[in-house]
Amino acid sequence: MSGSEPLLKVTDLSVEFPTDDGVVKAVRGVSFEVGRHEILGIVGESGCGKSVTAMAIMGLLPSTARVTGSIKFRGEELVGLKPREMRAYRGNKIAMVFQDPMTALNPVYKVGSQLAEAVRVHQTVSRKQARARAIELLEMVQIPQAATRVDSYPHEFSGGMRQRAMIAMAIANSPDVLIADEPTTALDVTVQAQILEMLMGLQDQLDHAIVLITHDLGVVAGMVDRMQVMYAGQVVESGTADDVFYSPRMPYSIGLLGSLPAHAGTLERLKPITGAPPSLINLPAGCPFSPRCPIADSVCESTEAQLVAVNEGHLSRCHHVKELNEMPEPLRLFEGVVK
Amino acid sequence: MLFFVIRRVLVSIPLLLLASIVAFILVVNTGDPIEDLRTKPNVPKATIALREHQLGLDKPVVERYVTWLGKAVHGDFGKTIKNKPVWAEVSRSMGVTLRLVLFASIVSILVGVLIGVISAVKQYSWFDHGATTGAFLLYSLPVLAVGSFLKYVLAIRFNRWIGRGDNPLIKTIGESTPNFCTKSKPYNCGFIPSVTDFLSHAFLPMLTLVLISFAGYARFSRAAMLETLNADYVRTARAKGLSERRVIVKHAFRNALTTIATIVSLDFGALIGGAILTETIFEWHGMGRVLVESINKIDPNLLLCWFFVTAVAVIVFNLVADFAYAFLDPRIRLD
Amino acid sequence: MQLPPDDDESSPPSGAAASLVPAEREFTVEQRSQWKTTVHRFTRHRPAMVSSVVFVLLMLFAFVGPSFWKYRFDQVLKKPAGANADWIRPSWEHPFGISKGYDVFAQVMRGTQYSIRIALVVTVVSVGLGVFVGAIAGYFRGFTDAVLMRFTDLMLVIPYLAAVAALQRNVKGSTWLWLALFLAFFGWMGIARVIRGEFLSLREKEFVEAARSVGASAPRIIFRHILPNTLGPIIVNATLAVGGAVLAEAALSFLGLGVKPPDTSLGKIIEVGKSKATTYPNEFWWPVLMLCLISLTINFIGDGLRDAFDPKQNRVRA
Ligand SMILES: Nc1ncnc2c1ncn2[C@@H]1O[C@H](COP(=O)(O)OP(=O)(O)OP(=O)(O)O)[C@@H](O)[C@H]1O
Ligand SMILES: [Mg+2]
């Protein structure tokens, strides 16, 4: 993938929501690129701005949101496009799968007609052709008896089937980029694996790029090419999957890995990060993770860290990158914290 | 669907039966229809007994109910205390009231839903603030105040202002001009004059009913619409790249409609109360008048028929709303 | 946490932590702080605050006013020299004028008092009935629920103003209390439905499971555990019920089917005054205005309470 122009290039993206209680800085200076046929994982705990980032790319944020920075799709700027212009990309070049399949489908229309609608917005085809395409799409996402299921209502589908239908809707117009925002969080563990596998299979088949958003590192393990960890609206670490998994250089990523059963298996027990993320209205002066960080010092509490390169393509936002580099077992960082 | 309809209709028959029992109990406890006769001096016992027999008061309550019911199912609702057929009186006044209520409901539902939907779509705009505040005020104001204000203040001034103080364009009393179409005035008997006469009488009462009830619909539709506008499936619809118009109409409004259909029926009871008051303010001879007179004069059969007819209306309205809901929402099981 | 306590959007979810706390005591601690934020939210609702003040003034006007006013409602006044009408226009002495020898201001004061008094009785009784029926139906579900809800449906089929009017016709002597009781008896169904819904969902919550597992009796679970959690909807509905009752009573009395002398009410005064609405407006419009004021203030207060108790519905009025 290296060398080719990025499909999607996000530069210094910030999103703020003015509210009664103050300005919520949901996303702050996020940059990343997604190349052709690449899978980018975005990881972070609840409220760190993953969905807001995704919605900004789709142009689906509420009109009160203030979006700055740049989002380029194949070199075309998306920030500041008029709604009408943005519609040409939505569901066509860039498509999205949402977190909760139980509510994401319209309960009053048949699944098939919702799929056909997605087809007909961007392609001039007859009703009949759209319906045929809907059946084909349902087959692609491995819904049994697609030809009859096309006439079912969403409430007649199970959670997993609905998510399949959502994915079918997203690939209806063969998008270049598929954003999957926690596509499996609301599903059974067994169904989760099937859905992820199917997403991989479809990607091989259709050759689109995927932005896979999750708060569960276990989901992205072994699936993504590159990943980035977000905290309090910022990217705190990014690199190849191997970089972040095997040599994390930001205490927050380490904490996330520590709470992962696969990793924790080598340790004695799970070491979760204590405390809660900061309020996005009154952000602390220094590193936003410092109140929860085992190696934070006065510098961390007073000045914000910059993203610095650890290696080629591996970035970390931590004042103590060097120490982490020298630490024999950085993954044991949190052991002293939880007694 | 047909099966569903039939089953629902059958289920509402016992409800109507129970309602008629409640109505009968109410009527029995309204008072003694021949109290006057009893308290008058020098009325022979035989006269009282005869009157009691005529009205069926000498029989036990249960027997009276069964007798009444037996006749009622055949469409015979008995005689008023003035010995006129009850059904003729009730059906005439029901015609008067239905014209008023149906027209007013249709207008207020259309206007209310439209305003509610627009305010939700343009949430926090000046239109929304204006409509929401206006609807809130109208919703809170008593029918009594709105009707009286229209009648005594606006209509009278308006008629004077256009120079028709003596022969008002907007009539404030009655549902039609008395002796409007007679042999001496044949020119009044055509279609256009009678419609004009009706409209000039009906304008104020309808306006009153529309004003007080559209506000409720507007508030409710706005809330329902705001909810669906924030629903996940509307976000999905936007993510497909649909036009905003299609997102609003086909996805948000179509779903809000299922909720709106329920409130339209629930409000019917309130509408009856509003109609009674409105008719009284504008001195119409409709169901409101029948109710007041049958209670004041203690006219059991008339009152009973009134209760029965309104109960039927409420049940039918609820059924229609049920059907609409089932029709609009595929999640309702029809079997 | 640096967030103001009423911020419900960006604060990390506290629901998970809260539902894991089964102990009764800690539960009430959480409740107390919730009350504080509710009160705080209410005070930020300006129309509701203004309305509260106005409503308190109205109560003073109705209940305390008569003892300070120089004329009693039943005091027959002599016609001033030269006046030959039954109705005399307002003056400083008689702000609403005189009608047939009576001071209208004193009449309206007393009418307001009766209207509010009736409404309060209606509210207490109908809310009590509604909560009782709703709680039992929602808690026990099944057959009990089915029977109670069919009964509720039945009561909704009979237009309630008419039902009350029919019963009220037969009342002799003091009428206002009976009117209030009748209105309550035919007006509890809405609250019952709301409370039933609350109970249906609350009875599945962890803290109820916990209470049940330690063997708490049904009445104890209903009153000690579930009912306190439905206080929000109860208060909101009770407030709105006051407004509804004032209007219902006024409507009936206006139709001539409500209170009878010697009792009075705003509706009664309006009924008496309506024949002179254009020639002698004071006896008609002042009570109408009073009625509007009561209804508006109560609806605003109810609105503020709803926002305060249910912040998710913020600014969604329905
Ligand atoms: N419309 C909005 N107005 C105000 N704040 C908002 C709005 N939308 C999102 N936020 C805030 O932005 C922050 C980031 O939200 P976001 O939905 O991106 O989190 P997330 O990382 O997707 O979390 P989750 O894992 O729970 O989905 C949150 O604190 C949220 O409260
Ligand atoms: Mg999210």
Describe the sheet with the most strands of chain B: none
How many E-type strands of chain B? 0
At CATH level 3, the topology of chain B is MetI-like fold
The computed structural class of chain C is mainly alpha
Q: What portion of the residues of chain B fall into strands of 2 or more residues?
A: under 5%
Helix content of chain B: over 70%
Largest sheet of chain C: 3 strands, antiparallel
Determine the fraction of residues in helical runs of chain C and give it as a percent range: 55-70%
Please give the radius of gyration of chain B in angstroms.
Answer: 25 Å
Give the largest chain-chain interface (CB within 8 Å). Answer: B-C, 50 and 46 residues
Straight-line N-to-C gap of chain B:
8 Å
As residue ranges, the low-confidence spans of chain C are 1-27, 313-318
The residue-averaged pLDDT of chain B reads: 85
Q: State the domain count of chain B.
A: 1
Distinct helical segment count of chain B: 13
What is the β-strand count of chain C? Answer: 3
Instruction: Tell me the radius of gyration of chain C.
Output: 24 Å
Shape of chain C: elongated
Number of helices of chain C: 13
